[in-house]
């Protein structure tokens, strides 16, 4: 029997987040995004060496920071240059749930020119998430026209 290069149920690309308190992050993602804990490997000091969650149809890996291995949290780095996009059936409900669980709103949920209804938040561990629900299938030309109009309107 041949082993698949990508484990069953995973996609080719899986985000891996580093946090200052992975156990609390796991609890937050479970409350905010209905994440399912797939596995959690403890460190001798009680931290999380590795954990895997499933949100919707996608996996998310995370662990506590380990500066000796160059794994640093957003707080340690002074922010994050990476944002995660999470599609859900009801963006308004999920966004409200994440805020209630402890996230901070960065941009409110609104209808976007590219056909999604979306908003952006920061989780309590410094990671930035855009939560969205796809509402319209648009061509690239339609998106570009709407973007040009949007940029003119906001100037």
TrEMBL record:
Span of domain VOC: 9-134
InterPro entries in alphabetical order: Glyas_Bleomycin-R_OHBP_Dase, Glyas_Fos-R_dOase_dom, VOC_core
CDD domains per record: VOC_like
Gene3D superfamilies in UniProt: 3.30.720.110, 3.30.720.120
PANTHER family: BNAUNNG04460D PROTEIN-RELATED, VOC DOMAIN-CONTAINING PROTEIN
Protein name: Glyoxalase
Organism field: Pseudoalteromonas rubra
Lineage per the UniProt record: Bacteria, Pseudomonadati, Pseudomonadota, Gammaproteobacteria, Alteromonadales
């Amino acid at each position: 029997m041949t082993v698949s290069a990508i484990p069953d149920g995973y996609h080719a690309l899986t985000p891996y987040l580093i946090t200052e308190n992975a156990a609390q992050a796991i609890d937050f993602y479970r409350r905010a995004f209905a994440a399912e804990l797939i596995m959690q490997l403890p460190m001798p000091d009680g931290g999380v060496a590795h954990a895997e969650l499933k949100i919707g149809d996608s996996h998310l890996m995370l662990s506590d920071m380990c500066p000796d291995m160059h794994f640093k949290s957003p707080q340690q780095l002074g922010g994050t240059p990476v944002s995660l996009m999470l599609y859900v059936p009801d963006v308004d409900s999920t966004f409200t749930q994440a805020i209630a669980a402890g996230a901070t709103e960065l941009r409110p949920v609104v209808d976007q020119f590219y056909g999604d209804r979306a908003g952006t938040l920061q989780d309590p561990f410094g990671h930035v998430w855009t939560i969205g629900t796809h509402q319209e299938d648009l061509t690239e030309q339609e998106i570009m026209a709407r973007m040009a109009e949007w940029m003119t309107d906001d100037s």
